[in-house]
Structures are given as structure tokens and as C-alpha cells.
Recover the amino acids of this structure.
């Protein structure tokens, strides 16, 4: 009697070729210009399919089944049912202000602001659900259960708490929303789960928050003190007051120093946050380790920013490919999965693309 062959460990890799990707970008650009922007939905789909097909799990490629027509349909649907009503609400509120009907205008502005806080969360959820539902591996589809309206409420609630706590609840917000997203994610008929916490995040985050609070205090306080000292100095008619000149000079000196300290502190926190979000994820007994470090992450972000800016946005797919390679090289699953026991999921897939994400120009993750 022989022992059963153990299930292989999960591994990730990517092999995105530069020349074909560049050719695809130029083709999409030409057709988008010729169609006055309409082709961009199909162009985005082709880029996704290209990146998906060059991403491998255990040596087997992902497959993206979304279509440009689905994205276009979702965009038109949101344009009619969300964007135009919001535009009308805003226009009506401004008209009421001109008529000095401030109570009614305030009510409409409240509706507009609440929608602006609520809808981005719905957009994030619907975009994630669409992309997962159009992603297959070995013929098995990913999926996301739950409702976008519920996730939108959580996003709005966390945002209100973030404001009320002057930013101190940020780690709770990040971990909480990550949990609510991944606890509803599926691969076939098997579920993901997130069991990470915020305890290890707060010591470093509180340091960052303190640096930020101190920096803002100094950046505002020092120019204010200098302006007060120079306030009595008279200026010729039409000239800039000496107080304003000195305050501006002080601000231009203190702000770069503030950013020089704040950005490394913030990035050091994000390194820890990324590790926490990845290492708390579970799937069928598999857990993950994410070997992300400060300098490699800084090089990735700085390089991606330069790539996008210097190419006026055309390098976005190359930036996405760099990020994909960064993640695949550093994300290490620990454990084994019996993929033969995973069957196709029964959850229905959405019929249209992420129109709300197009409306809010959300990050294409």
C-alpha cells in the first residue's frame, strides 16, 4: 500500500514580456483616439487579460474572462442612474442658494455629500466582485459574496469614525474593511478568511501620528509666529505685507522638512500594514508571509510614479506589471491545498462591469 501523493505547495510567479505589452498599449492608444475614448473599455480589458495570462499559480496561468462590452454597459448604467442624478442634485442646490432658500439647499448638499462618502465604498466592492468573478484558474472561478450597499455603509461609518478620532482609528479602518472584503471572497466553493488584528500596528502608527501632529503644529505655528512679529512693518501701497512674505518663506522652509520626515515614517508603517494584511489571510489551511521591506517598496512606488508621470499615463500597465512582479516575488504561501477537492462555486456573477469604479476613477488593483 502506497502513501497518497501530498498536495503541492502554492506558489506565485509572473513573466510579463515588455515588448508585447508596449505594442498593446500603443494599439489601445490609437484605437481610443480614433473612437473618441470609447475603446478604452476594451483596451482596459485587453491589458487585464494580458497581465492575468502572464500571472501563474503553481506554474499554471490565470485567465481573465471579462469583456469591454461589460465595462461599457456598467459605465452607461451608472452614468444614467448615479452620475446624472447627483449632477442634478448639485445644480438644484446651487440654484436654491442663489434664491436664498438655504434650508432646502443645505438638505440637498447633505444628500450630495452623503452619496459622495457612501458610493466609493460600493464602487470598491463592485469592482472587486466583477474582477474576481471574471478571474479563473484551472477553469474554476473566483467570486465575492455579499452586497455592495452593505460594504459602502461600512466604508462611510469608518470614515466618520476616522474624522471623529482625528485619524487615530486608521489601522482599525484598514483591517476592518480588509476583513469584510476577504471574508466574503471565494475560490470555487471554498472560502477565504482573514483573522489578522491591529495590535501590532498601533505602536508604529502612533509614532507616525505623533510625527504628523507635531509637523502640522510646527508648519502652521512657526509661520504664524513669524507673521505676528512682522505685522507692524509697513509696506508700500500695493506691495505684499512683510508679515505675509515672512510667513510664506517660513512655510516653504518647514514644509519640505516635514515631508522629509513624514514620508519615511508613513512608508515604514505601510510596510508593517502590508505584512499584517497579507499574513492574516487564510485559504483552506494555507497562510501567507509577505517579505516586503522599506527600500524595495520605496523603489517600487517611486519608480511607478516616475513611469506614469514621464509617460503621461501610458506607462500605467508597466507600473501594474512591476507591482505584480513585486507581489509574486515576495508573497510566500505556507501550507498545501487539495485543489482537486475544489468545485465550481454556485454564486452568480455580475452581468456588467464596475461602472461606479469608472465614475470615481478608483485604483485598478
Amino acid at each position: 500500500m502506497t502513501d497518497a501523493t501530498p498536495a503541492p505547495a502554492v506558489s506565485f510567479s509572473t513573466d510579463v514580456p515588455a515588448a508585447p505589452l508596449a505594442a498593446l498599449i500603443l494599439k489601445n492608444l490609437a484605437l481610443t483616439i480614433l473612437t473618441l475614448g470609447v475603446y478604452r473599455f476594451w483596451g482596459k480589458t485587453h491589458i487585464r487579460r494580458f497581465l492575468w495570462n502572464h500571472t501563474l499559480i503553481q506554474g499554471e496561468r490565470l485567465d481573465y474572462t471579462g469583456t469591454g462590452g461589460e465595462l461599457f454597459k456598467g459605465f452607461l448604467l451608472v452614468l444614467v442612474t448615479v452620475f446624472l442624478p447627483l449632477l442634478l442634485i448639485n445644480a438644484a442646490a446651487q440654484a436654491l442658494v442663489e434664491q436664498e432658500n438655504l434650508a432646502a439647499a443645505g438638505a440637498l448638499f447633505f444628500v450630495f455629500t452623503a452619496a459622495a462618502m457612501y458610493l466609493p465604498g460600493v464602487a470598491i466592492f463592485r469592482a472587486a466582485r466583477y474582477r474576481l468573478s471574471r478571474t479563473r484558474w484551472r477553469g474554476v472561478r473566483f467570486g465575492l459574496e455579499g452586497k455592495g450597499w452593505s460594504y459602502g455603509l461600512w466604508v462611510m461609518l469608518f470614515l466618520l469614525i476616522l474624522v471623529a478620532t482625528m485619524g487615530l482609528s486608521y489601522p482599525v479602518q484598514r483591517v476592518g474593511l480588509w476583513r469584510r472584503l476577504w471574508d466574503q471572497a471565494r475560490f470555487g466553493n471554498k472560502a477565504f478568511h482573514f483573522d489578522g488584528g491591529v495590535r501590532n500596528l498601533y505602536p508604529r502608527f502612533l509614532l507616525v501620528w505623533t510625527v504628523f501632529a507635531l509637523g502640522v503644529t510646527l508648519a502652521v505655528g512657526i509661520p504664524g509666529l513669524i507673521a505676528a512679529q512682522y505685522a507692524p512693518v509697513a509696506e508700500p501701497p500695493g506691495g505684499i505685507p512683510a508679515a505675509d512674505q515672512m510667513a510664506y518663506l517660513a512655510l516653504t522652509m518647514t514644509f519640505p522638512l516635514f515631508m522629509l520626515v513624514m514620508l519615511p515614517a508613513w512608508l515604514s508603517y505601510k510596510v508593517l500594514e502590508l505584512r499584517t494584511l497579507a499574513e492574516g489571510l487564510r485559504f483552506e489551511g494555507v497562510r501567507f508571509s509577505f517579505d516586503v521591506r522599506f527600500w524595495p517598496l520605496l523603489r517600487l512606488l517611486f519608480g511607478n510614479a516616475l513611469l506614469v508621470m514621464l509617460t503621461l499615463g501610458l506607462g500605467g500597465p508597466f507600473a501594474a506589471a512591476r507591482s505584480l512582479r513585486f507581489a509574486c516575488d515576495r508573497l510566500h504561501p505556507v501550507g498545501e491545498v487539495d485543489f482537486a477537492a475544489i468545485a465550481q462555486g454556485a454564486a452568480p456573477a455580475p452581468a456588467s462591469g464596475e461602472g461606479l469604479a469608472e465614475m470615481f476613477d478608483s485604483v485598478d488593483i
The longest strand covers residues 60-64. Confidence is low (pLDDT under 50) at residues 1-6. DSSP finds eleven helices and ten strands in the chain.
